Amino acid sequence: MLVILSLAVGITLGVLINPTVPASLSPYLPMAVMAALDSVFGGLRARFEGTFEDRVFVVSFVSNALLAALMVWAGNRLGVQEMSIAVVVAFGVRIFNNLGAIRRILFHA
Amino acid sequence: MKRSTGASAPHRGMGTSPGVAVVIGALAFLITLVWQGQASLSASREERRKQLASIVERRQERTQRYEEDLAELRARLDELAAASGAARLQKLRAETELIAAFSGATTVTGPGLVVELADSPDAGRDTLDPSERVQDVDLQAVVNALWAAGAEAIAVSGQRLVATSAIRNAGAAVLVNYKVLSSPYRVEAVGDPAVLQERFSASEVAAHFRRWVEIYGLGFSVAGDDALAIPAFSGSLRFEYARPIEDP
């Protein structure tokens, strides 16, 4: 219940406040979202596998998001404009791995 | 679900810790943010695209209007050129032609008077008696009388008289425009033939010549002509020092 509540609160906050993201930050936000999604699916998998830890989930969520944004920022600074693609690919692969694991657990296939 | 809630984490099953809840909320917030950002971005792009399209449309309309204006103005320009510009040009050309005619730069034709003067047939090559010859002063007097009678253009034996023309003796001959002329001298003057004839005949020089014909045997005849052609001045009209002044 708390999860659903916080989900609703987050969405309504986002809709109501609707802060205009500064243009300089706009490339990093999707990366952070990707990282956060990855940790969410990782957490879900851990939960299904019975190894879920609150602390790990929270820390990995924050650190993944920050690290992803940092990587893209550093890539931009170093002239690697396609760093965001690397982040997207890396987290995408991890998300699909986690989804695969969840699928195996749920459907035993 | 069954496994996770039942097997390994019974105490965390439904009751989620506040940390996880905050993280989920933050995630929802972030996703909403990005979602909306993208939506507004694409919306603003669409809006911008529409704006640009309308600007292009407006500019095209304006261009077309300008082209129409241009065509209209060109038509008017042609009209005006045909009406006033060409008229002015024609006037200038007519003035130029008139000036050229007066200054001796062009051949002029018209009716007029022909005065022929000749030395006495008795005046041989060796005779230096000036009385038997037509002198420069005689020609000058005839020319002056013709000008006074209203001549508009005069030539002496084909030498057009212009602003720099001089008529003077050079031995037994007469120089006009530095060309050596000899008897008989044919002075052609364009003007009203009747008026010229009347006034010239009444002039002093004509009276003198009528007498000199009898006394010295000089040739002298005056005749009207319907179609004289006074040639253009053949020398160079160079003004090295004289400068026209600006129109006041």
Provide structural commentary.
Chain A has one domain (28-107). Chain A is built from four helices and no strands. Chain A has helices at 2-17, 28-49, 54-78, 83-107. Chain A starts with a helix and ends with a helix. With 248 residues, chain B is an alpha+beta fold. Chain B has five helices and eight strands. Chain B has helices spanning 2-8, 18-103, 136-148, 193-201, 204-216, and strands spanning 108-118, 153-156, 159-160, 167-170, 173-176, 179-181, 185-190, 219-230. In chain B, a hairpin with a 2-residue loop joins strand 2 (153-156) and strand 3 (159-160). The radius of gyration of chain B is 51 Å and the shape is rod-shaped. Chain B starts with a helix and ends in an 18-residue tail after the last strand.
Q: Given the C-alpha coordinates, what overall shape of chain A results?
A: globular
Estimated helix fraction of chain A: over 70%
* Bulk shape of chain B: rod-shaped
Q: Which structural class matches the secondary elements of chain A?
A: mainly alpha
Mean pLDDT of chain A: 82
**N-to-C SSE series of chain A?**
HHHH
Could you please say which CATH topology of the largest domain in chain B applies here?
Alpha-Beta Plaits
The whole-angstrom Rg of chain A is 16 Å
Q: Please tell me the total number of domains of chain A.
A: 1
Specify the oligomeric state. heterodimer
Class derived from helix and strand content of chain B: alpha+beta
**Physical arrangement of strands within the biggest beta sheet of chain B:** 3-2-7-1-8
Number of discrete domains of chain B:
2
The radius of gyration over CA of chain B amounts to: 51 Å
Query: Could you state the order of secondary-structure elements of chain B as H and E?
Result: HHEHEEEEEEHHE
Write down the overall mean pLDDT of chain B.
82
CATH-defined architecture of the largest domain in chain B: 2-Layer Sandwich
Uncertain runs of chain B are 1-14
Q: Give the terminus-to-terminus CA distance of chain B.
A: 112 Å
User: How many beta strands in the DSSP annotation of chain B?
Assistant: 8
Provide a count of the helices of chain A.
4
